[in-house]
Every structure is written in C-alpha cells, then in structure tokens.
Design brief:
The chain is of the alpha/beta class and about 350 residues long. Helix content is about 40%, strand content about 20%. The strands form 4 sheets. It has a 7-stranded mixed β-sheet, sandwiched between helices. A 3-stranded mixed β-sheet has the order 7-9-8, with helices on one face. A two-stranded parallel sheet has the order 1-2. The termini are far apart. Keywords: ATP-binding, Hydrolase, Nucleotide-binding.
Length: about 350
C-alpha cells in the first residue's frame, strides 16, 4: 500500500505484538483478543483510503497467533473516544472504585477532534443537552448517564487549517498562499497537514494581532460548540494539546504537569500575539493555537477562573483513552458471557 502512514505504523504494530508475546503465556495466545481502534485522524481521511489502511493492519493481526475477531480493527466514533478517556481518568483517580466519590470531567484536544465528557448532577443539564450529547455507559455493574460529545474538525490541527482558510484534505487552489491575521506580519512558510502542504503567511498589521486572531477564531467556532453551565461545578482534567500548549509557554511543568485556570490560556495568547507583532515567534502558530484554545474553552462554558488539572499520568499510568477502551471492551465481553437473569 502507498500510504506512508501504514509504512510507518506497521513496524510499531509488530513491535507491540512482539511485546505481547513476551508477556502473555503461550497457552493463552489463542484466547487473547487483539483490538485496534483508530481515532479522528482516520475519520477525517476519505472513506476508501481509511478502509485500505485498516485492512492492511488487520492482515498483520491475522498473521499473529492471537484471537482476531471480525471487528478487531475499526475507527472509533468520537463519543466512544471521549467516554473511554473519561473511564481512564475516573478509574485512575478512584472515582469508579469508590461509591459516593465525585467523578471528574475530561477534556481532550487532539489534532482532528476535541472531546468533552462528564457525569451531570443537575437535571437541567440533562434536559437542555442537544440530541446526541448524552450517552449511557455500563461499567462495573453500574450505569452512567454521561454528557459526552466529540467535535470532529475542531481538533487543534483541523481548527488551525480552518482558521488559516484552508479545507480539510484539499490543497489550496492553484497553490495559493493562505494569508491569516493569526500569523506574525511578514511571516511566510509552509505547513503540512494530512499529507497536504500549504503555503501560509501573515497579513499586514492592521491592529492588535490578538484581537484580529480572536475575531477570526470566533468566526470559526460560531454556533459549533454547545455551552453548558454545569462545567463550572465539575473538576476537569485536560489532556493532549491542552497539556502540550500549556507546557510550551510555561503554564505547567513539562514533565510533571500541573494546574492552571482557564484564563491563563488567554493571558498567554495575548502575550505571545503581542510579541509576534514585532519579532519572529519561536513557533509561528503559537499565537493562533493559544487563541483558539482560549476561545474554545470559553465557548464550552468554562469561566476564566475555572481550574483545570493537566497531566499525562496518574499513578504512573498514562491518561489516554486506551485504558478506558480496554476496560469497556473487557466489561462488554463479560456481560456477553454472563447468562441473562
């Protein structure tokens, strides 16, 4: 297959299978299921291209000695991604294991999509949530009614493309340059996204770079995110690009993580954008990215003084959706095997 993504991922997949062989007793290999779930990056690819990639991965699985089902390789929908990350963080914080302990919410900002998931306590949240924002989860003999939504196309890289004026999966017409108020005046460069290279540049200064960029970002986000008031009363963990951006500008320790208030992103955005007006920034997209994150959180209903916890690990376990997806998969298998009472 021509896909560079597959050529790059195949050795990694085989390496993981080799690790599994080293750690799982030989007699259990045939009973150990293999599951691979892809996220927004593949959801944004044209359907046939994504399916070709999945078929190639399944071929690698079928050549292994492990249990391979018909649906062992699939593209995870956005809601499942958010719910799985919620399971992970609530399991690691002890909320799922301790009755009566408050659950925490989850914010994940990937490249192609962004998720928000929490367990509502107020009836008003349940009543006012749009269709598709509530989902039921059965885990550990309990049923949870979660507020969970994945915004496809509002991940940091996809949003960056939209702010720049490009379209997902399409080169700029006739190789035209994408000119943006979110880039430093006079900046010119190239940016690659989803195997497409774009020529980008900043526009001539016509006012505050932050204000111009914030206005452009607000146009992209307008009517695209649902605001819910309850988020201000829920403890939230934030992952992925939230963490990376905060660490990049010194809001948290790059290794240990930490806590910040939502308004810190806006403060950092204003500083970075103001600096970029007069001197080349160390990262040409930092003004854009910070402004976007600040606007996104505001649009979701987070006030400036709301504290977020940013971490990559809890008790030395990574806070990704993968652990939660594994728990959910095993739990569903156990329910399938259990007789109906």
């Amino acid at each position: 297959m021509e896909s560079s993504a597959f050529r790059q991922s195949t050795p990694g997949i085989q390496e993981l299978l080799d690790i599994a062989k080293q750690n799982i007793p030989f007699e259990f290999w045939k009973a150990t299921p293999l599951v691979l779930k892809a996220t927004a990056g593949l959801r944004l690819l044209p359907g046939e291209k994504a399916q070709k990639l999945l078929r190639k991965v399944k071929e690698v699985f079928e050549a292994s000695p492990f249990l391979v089902g018909d649906d062992c390789v699939s593209i995870m929908n956005g809601t499942d991604e958010g719910v799985s990350a919620w399971i992970t963080v609530n399991f690691l914080t002890g909320s799922l294991k301790t009755p009566g302990r408050s659950n925490v919410g989850m914010l994940d900002l990937g490249g192609g999509s962004t998720q928000i998931t929490f367990l509502p306590r107020f009836e008003g949240t349940l009543q006012t949530s749009p269709p598709g924002f509530l989902t039921s989860l059965q885990m550990f003999n309990r049923t949870y009614r979660l507020y969970s939504y994945s915004y496809l196309g509002l991940g940091l890289m996809s949003a960056r493309l939209a702010v720049l004026g490009g379209e997902e999966g399409k080169p700029a017409e006739d190789g035209a340059e994408l000119v943006s108020p979110c880039l430093s005046p006079g900046f010119r460069g190239e940016w690659e996204h989803a195997e497409v290279t774009y020529r980008v540049s900043g526009q001539e200064a016509a006012g505050s770079l932050y204000q111009l960029c914030a206005h452009r970002v607000s146009e992209i986000l307008r009517n695209k995110v649902h605001r819910t008031e309850e988020v201000k009363d829920v403890d939230f963990y934030a992952f992925s690009y939230y963490y990376d951006l905060a660490a990049n500008v010194g809001l948290i320790d790059a290794e240990k993580g930490g806590s910040l208030v939502v308004g810190d992103f806006e403060t950092a955005a204003k500083y970075v954008c103001r600096t970029a007006e007069t001197q080349p920034p160390r990262s040409p997209f930092l003004c854009l990215d910070l402004t976007y994150v600040s606007s996104l959180l505001h649009g979701l209903g987070f006030p400036g003084d709301k504290v977020l916890k940013l971490t990559r690990k809890i008790d030395n376990v990574e806070t990704s959706w993968a652990l939660g997806a594994t728990f959910h998969y095993i739990d569903s298998l156990s329910r399938q095997k259990s007789p109906t009472l």
